User: Fold these one by one.
Assistant:
Number 1:
Amino acid sequence: MRLGAAFAVLCASAALAGCTGSEPAPRPSATTTPTPAPSLGPLGQAGCKPASPFISAELQGTPEEAGTSLYGMVFVRSDGPLPVGESIKVAWRMTGKGDLTVRLIDPDGRRKKLDWGPEAHGGSNYHRPGDEWGTGFTLAKPGCWELRFSRDSSHASVWIDATS
């Protein structure tokens, strides 16, 4: 009987020790896929059919690869269409590795220069997945503009339907 009672106490102690939380929680492995951020709406497509979602001053890009995400916080005065002829400042967050390249394509398919950027940001209170950069650009005329984003192996586009 004594051996049985000692065994029961040992088993109970082991069970309780497992419930104390003294063991550190396992860390996610490097291969863990991050949880995708929620979509702001139907993702944009070429020709602005549809344009990229633009809600509460936030844009969402359309990724080319699974696991890539792109969001932009637009610094504008209203939540309406983006203005033609004014410089637009955006803080972008994009997943992936490496530097960010951004190309601005006008409605006629011609590449245009950004007003500035991309400039890497060290930190902010804009909480979306990925690293953060800032850009400035001007939509010189009405129509469907494309912003193409590239990192080492991550690519995405934003389509903006600019109206006058």
Note: The first helix runs from residue 2 to 18.
Number 2:
Amino acid sequence: MKHKVTHLVLSGLLLLSQSSNADIWAEREALANIEIELTSLEKLITSAKQRSNSQDRTTFDYQNLLIDIRKIRSGISHHLTVPMEPVIPSGIDALSAKYTDHKR
């Protein structure tokens, strides 16, 4: 299960990095979708944890998986809530706007 979660997260992040010229809004939308999916995964992990038997010889550490999922989700959430740096246009030379010359 942990490998599937890791694969899903890495696949999502890989899709984001494939296009270096990706539109910032498309990227933010993709990150928001990943955040939603991570919330769904957290519910599935909690459900699996409830079904597990702590008396089994080998057990899965659901708590560590939940911590990792929450860290990733928190990082995405933080990124999405931090204001984007404004784009400051470079200086544009003003036009003279004087096209008529009056001679005396």
Note: The helical segments are 2-17, 24-51, 62-81.
